[in-house]
Design a protein that fits this description.
With 312 residues, this protein is of the alpha+beta class. The protein is built from seven helices and 14 strands. Strand 6 and strand 7 form a beta hairpin. The chain is globular.
Length: 312
């Protein structure tokens, strides 16, 4: 597969850690929130295996609060249209993620025993080099870990270097969100697995939608109608007996009669399952684990099995 470099410019911003990760061997970037987000350090399979066994440090500074859409423009439009006397700006937070089963020991070595007392999605302030950092037990992997919200850039760079210096005994490496691990874990990606054409019930977010609350919010009435009527499609897992796949756009999934019953939105080869696995939006009544279908890849019609998410 031929690779194409990303041309850096003011429109695609670097992070404070970019020069460091480039010296450490980053091999691919994606763009997230108009910023560089590392996408690979060599083999995805090898990086996935390392993440599941050890600890990695991720430059995820691109994952600041306005995420990967232009929410800041929406907010500025609301303020201008309503003549609000407010100042709207992007927060200066350079996020680091420490992920993997050995992340707990590494973080305890830096910040003390209290790190292991944090509950999932719990957070607190911890001090390094005289600067306080908000640290949450969270991250975009299923292997466990932490996210460090760095507001002091100089201290953050020193922390980045320190984590590598003292993490050698834990086999620490640079890393990034891993396509294989995230699909196996059923971690959904906005813009890939779902977008604003899908609703929360189709994406399995039912437990996060409270329609009984007295609080009013955008789309509440519409969601009530959707819940009452029921969904006509749902995100599901799929398995294909194939050893490789490169997916850059959705692929139609058909039933035995040749009718389209869904679309494959993300996929990868999983060394764990020894086949291609993916995340697909499947129509009723086929969005059940017992269903099957066919998909055309590189001119070949292949059998496909529907399964529940997550895979692991």
């Amino acid at each position: 597969m031929k690779s194409y470099p990303i041309a850096k410019s003011r429109r695609v911003r670097s992070t404070p850690y970019t020069s460091r990760i480039e010296k450490q061997g980053v091999t691919a970037y994606t763009v997230y929130n108009h910023m560089l987000l590392p996408a690979a350090f060599g083999s995805l399979e090898e990086s996935c295996d390392h993440l599941k066994k050890n600890v990695q440090i991720w430059d995820v500074a691109a994952e600041i609060s306005i995420a990967d859409s232009d929410v800041i423009f929406f907010a500025k439009g609301l303020a201008s249209g309503n003549k609000f006397d407010v100042k709207i700006f992007e927060p200066i937070v350079d996020i680091l993620a420490v992920q993997g089963p050995k992340s707990f020991d590494l973080m305890e070595k830096v910040f003390g025993e209290k790190m292991k007392e944090l509950k999932f999605f719990g957070f607190d302030y911890f001090t390094f080099n005289g600067a306080k950092h908000l640290i949450a037990r969270s991250g975009w992997s299923k292997q466990g870990g932490f996210e460090i919200y760095v507001e002091n850039t100089n201290s953050g760079l020193k922390l980045y270097d320190h984590l590598f210096e003292i993490g050698k005994e834990f086999n620490v490496r640079p890393g990034c969100p891993n396509l294989i691990e995230r699909i196996e874990s059923g971690l959904l990606s906005y813009g890939n697995d779902f977008d604003n054409n899908d609703n929360p019930f189709q994406c399995g977010f039912d437990k996060y939608v409270d329609l009984e609350t007295d609080i009013n919010f955008l789309g509440k009435d519409k969601l009530k109608k959707i819940k009452e009527k029921g969904i006509d499609r749902k995100l599901m897992g799929v398995q294909i007996d194939l050893t490789k796949i490169l997916l850059t756009s959705s692929l139609n999934i058909k039933n035995n009669d040749g009718n389209i019953i869904g679309e494959l939105r993300s996929a990868c080869y999983s060394p764990h399952f020894k086949k291609v696995i993916g995340i697909a939006m499947i129509k009723e009544p086929y969005c059940k684990a017992s269903s099957s279908g066919t998909i055309e890849i590189d001119g070949n019609s292949l059998a496909l099995k529907v399964c529940d998410l997550p895979f692991i």
